[in-house]
Each structure stands twice: as structure tokens, then as C-alpha cells.
Amino acid sequence: MSVSTRKILHIDMDAFYASVEQRDNPALRGKPVVVAWRGARSVVCAASYEARPFGVRSAMPAVRAERLCPQAIFVPPDFTRYKAVSRQIREIFARHTDLIEPLSLDEAYLDVTTTKSGLGSATATAEAIRAAIREETGLTASAGVAPNKFLAKIASDHRKPDGLFVVRPHQVDAFLLPLKVGRLPGVGKVMEAKLTELGITTVAQLRTLPLAEMEQRFGRWGRRLHELSLGIDHHPVQPERPSVQVSAEDTFEHDLRLDELEPHIRRLAEKTWAGHQREAGRVARTIVLKLKTADFQTLTRSLTPASRPGSAQELADIACALRSRVERPADSRYRLVGVGLSGFVDADEYTAQTDLFGPVPGG
Questions:
Q1: Active site annotated at which positions (predicted)?
Q2: Binding residue numbers for Mg(2+)
Q3: What pLDDT does residue 355 have?
Q4: Which of 15, 128, 152, 248 is the most buried (most CB within 10 A)?
């Protein structure tokens, strides 16, 4: 099996928001910390490692987190502070390579096939980055090193927190084949259940399914799944460039109805707004709501209002309202939701739309 000759890192900060809070407030260290607003509509942005043994996880409703861990200390998120730390971390990355693809404030892919720092290997580069993050920010990061992006991402989770795991080209099969299929990107609980019905629980078993059968059952996603089972991922690291869209999305552990999505939409709107704020001198005009149904159909609904949203709350309000344009039975369930901003223009050229309900891109 041929694998890429690229050397890819996936760097993932450990419990990032909660770790920043514990770093900046010594009274929180060693305590179960939940970064979330209190309230029925709030969801968990991050949970410290002390909170996780109680079952607290990011994206769960805050009221459930409070039931699971009554002694948890709730801290409202401070995205301005998190963004400042994220910029510090990006500066560390940039000492080694210009090929940096941020996924969020707390994780990124780096292509270190060739480095500016001249370190002898991808492993040495990952170790240097982790050491600099610890020394300069007081935080820890986990890293995965692999020949491609998806393997690096899985590897970075292998020894969390504060870990490093390396998958060399000749080790791909030994690493990949024993894994549960749920570890592959895009394989959520629903897809995992579908594969289990076929007797497929590991990547090794998935690899035995013929490509033609995979495509017949799952369409284009079947081909992608087949490639992943072979350890193939040709997607390059995409450095930051003028954005076509800034977005955040989540795949749920259990499929949800449309009327259950509001807290998730509001949390994702916060992340999207934080990403939009990094687009210096550019503004987005169009709000996008993305949904993926339980049977893997992707729906998008979008709106270009006369006046663009001025805050994360306004973005969330519009994205929530876009649910009314989803013409499906009320009991339909969804495995993924995303919130995006698109239609970027230079700030000094921005002209508000005149018709609130005019033609809408992607609607």
C-alpha cells in the first residue's frame, strides 16, 4: 500500500478553554471546571480533565453537566482571552512552517515535510512545538505525527493529555487496522451502527468490503470511507487564505430533532463569530445553516439580510430562525448541524443588502 511522503502534524491543545481558566486562576487548579454559561439553553464549551470522569463533555447541555457533576465550578467563556492565547500558539507554529491549517482556536494541522527551523524530523519538530507551548503559555498540547491529515488527527488523541504519538509510513497498517470504525473521521454513531449491522466493527473488517459495494450502499461517502480504511488521505494542509466561509459544525452522539438544535446552534455561532473576528478588514454578509439528516442528506439554508449581524447573538438568532425554512416532517432527525458566515467582502466596500428576503445564495 502506498502512503503519502508528507510529514503532517496535528496539534491539539488539552482542554483548552478550561486549561486557560485554570492557568489564570490558581483556585481552579485540580478542580472540575466547566466552561459554560448557566441556563437551560447553554451547552458546555469545555470541561477540565477533573470534570471528565463524571461524564461531562463539551457540547452537552450545561444543565446535564451540572447534574452529572454538582461540585463542578462553572466559568463563563472568555473568547477574547482564548483568542489571544491562540495567537501565541500560532506564532510558535509559524517558526517551523508556513503550511498551517487552523481548525479552531485550539487545534491545527501543520505540514512539516520541509521546515524553516531545520530540525531533523517531524517528531523533533512536534517535540519542539509542544515544549515551546508549555514554556511560553503554561499550557499543554498533544500531537500526532503521520503521513497524512486524518492519521495525524487520530494519533494526536492517542496519548492525551500532554502526549505525542508518531505513526511512520511503515506503521500505518499496524496502527490503523485494529481501530474501531468509529475512530475514522465522519463515522458517527449512526454510521457506526449501520456498519455494525454489516458485521463491520474494525477498520480491518471495513477494508474487506469491496469498493463497489461501499459506493452502492453509501454513495460518494462510501468511496471516501474505503480510502480511509486503506490509510489514504490526499488532502493537503491548506494555509489560511481569504475565507470563502467561516463555519463551525458538530456531529451529535445521538440524532436530534430540529426543535432540539437551538443550544447547539448558539454554541456554534459563538465559535463562528470568533473565527469571523479574525478576518481583519473583511465582513461577511450571508448566514448559513447546515444540517445533515440521519440518512446523510446535507441541507443548507442561508440568508443575506439588509444589515449584517453585529454579534454572535444576532448570528445565532438568524441561524435558529432559518430552521423554519427546513420543510421536513417534525419528527425528522439530524446527525449534524453547522453555522457559517459567507459572502465576504472588503469592509470598506461593504454595502448592505436592500431586500431582506431577496435572492439568497445557497438557499
A1: 107
A2: 12, 106
A3: 32
A4: 152
Closest CA to 304 of 360, 237, 257: 360
Cell 486524518 locates to: 150
Residues marked as binding?
A: 12, 106
Residue range 286-315, pLDDT digits in tens: 999 999 998 888 899 999 887 788 889 999
Domains belonging to the chain, first-starting first, are 8-14+80-172 (3.30.70.270), 16-78 (3.40.1170.60), 182-229 (1.10.150.20), 245-349 (3.30.1490.100)
Cβ within 8 Å of residue 103, ≥6 positions away:
109
- pLDDT (average), residues 136-144: 98
Reply yes or no on whether 107 is catalytic.
yes
Mapped onto helix, strand or coil, the DSSP state of residue 353 is coil
**pLDDT mean over 163-170:** 96
In terms of DSSP bridges, do strands 33-35 and 73-75 run parallel, antiparallel, or are they unpaired?
Answer: parallel
In the structure grid, which three cell numbers stand for residue 13, read together? Answer: 491543545
74-95 burial, b at 16+ Cβ within 10 Å, e below that, comes to bbebebeebeebbeebeebbee
Assign residue 281 a region: left if phi > 0, alpha if psi is -120 to 50, beta otherwise? left
- Closest listed residue to residue 149, CA positions, set 251, 9, 2: 9
Q: Report the alpha-carbon distance of residue 118 to residue 115 in Å, rounded.
A: 6
Q: Are 354 and 304 in contact (CB under 8 A)?
A: no
Contact criterion met (CB below 8 Å) for 90 and 102: yes
Q: Which residues neighbour 197 within 8 Å (Cβ) at sequence distance 6 or greater?
A: none
And the C-alpha cell for 3? 502512503
Residues near 253 by Cβ (< 8 Å), separated by ≥ 6?
188, 189
Count the helix, strand and coil residues of the chain and give each as a percent rounded to the nearest 5.
Answer: 40, 25, 40
Q: Which residue pairs, CB below 8 angstroms and at least 24 apart, start in 54-62?
A: 56/32, 59/250, 59/252, 59/264, 59/267, 61/263, 62/34, 62/36, 62/37, 62/38
| Predicted confidence band of residue 60 (pLDDT cuts 50, 70, 90) | confident
Burial of 321 (0-12, 13-18, 19+ CB in 10 A): middle
pLDDT of residue 24: 97
Sequential DSSP letters for 164-204:
EEE--GGGHHHHHTTSBGGGSTT--HHHHHHHHHTT--BHH
